[in-house]
Amino acid sequence: MIDALVAVLVLVGSSFMCLAALGILRLPDLLTRMHATTKAATLGVSLIMLGVCLHFAVEAVVARGLAIILFIMMTAPVAAHVIGRAGYFVGTRLWSGTVRDELKPHYDPLNHHLLSGLEEDDGRPDTAASGTRATDDLPGHDAPDPDADRQKG
Amino acid sequence: MSIVMLVSLAVMSLALCLTFIRLFRGPSLPDRVVAMELFSSILVGMMGVIAIATGVSFFLDVAIVVALMGFMATIGFSRFLERGGPRDD
User: Fold this and answer.
1) Do A20 and B35 touch (CB under 8 A)?
2) In this structure, what are the phi and psi dihedrals at residue A108, rounded to the nearest 5 degrees?
């Protein structure tokens, strides 16, 4: 009974890992590749470690297996966030079928500032360096602004 | 070593090969870093399967160390990318 459960867990976990590898090979973009690898690999490692815990059923081994699951589930989102942020700042190209880049009208790559779109004109002195943006941030021009910025950029 | 463990090790070896292709021909450095992180995750899974197949539970310690090293390498590479990228301030 336990052996059958362990076999099912290990097979499902390894197939999820194979799906993650297939996703990182086939998907067209850095962000979509991260979307494939982070979740599927985390689920695969968690299932395999659950199988290890069920197979040994000793306190020390179960504690190690659960520690690995906890560690993977804590570090995988942090690592994905950090590498996605670094990839966006470095300027990796998005997929040609990308519908919408919501960070693009709010992020200034020259002075590395991120605007929320709700600032007043007398905010920080750095944001006034980019001339069009200071006037674009007035309330009341909210709706057509992202389209105009995307047409320019 | 039962047939289930052999099959799952073969599937994960195939996953390692696919990841290595992306690691080899990834167009930019963040793609390679993502592939390396997936590499370490697959290695952790393989160590779990080997621990089941051989009955040696000390492989789990090695798996903890490999997971920690993969996380630290990802953080280090992304810090390097943010500080030394082409759009450095």
Assistant:
1) no
2) -105, 110
DSSP state of A23: H
Token output for B18? 């696919």
Q: Where are the domains of chain B?
A: 3-84
What are the pLDDT digits (tens) for B28-57? 889 999 999 999 999 999 999 999 999 998
Distance of CA A81 to the CA centre of its chain: 5
Which of B6, B71, B72, B80 is the mutation pick for testing A, counting most A CBs within 10 A? B71
Nearest CA to B70 out of A38, A17, A13, A16 is that of A38
The structure's pTM equals: 0.79
Tell me the residue type at A103.
L
Domain ranges for chain A: 2-90, 107-152
Cα separation, A74 vs A69, in Å, equals: 9
Q: If you search the block for the tokens 């002195």, which residue do you land on? A: A125
End-to-end alpha-carbon separation of chain A, Å?
Answer: 61
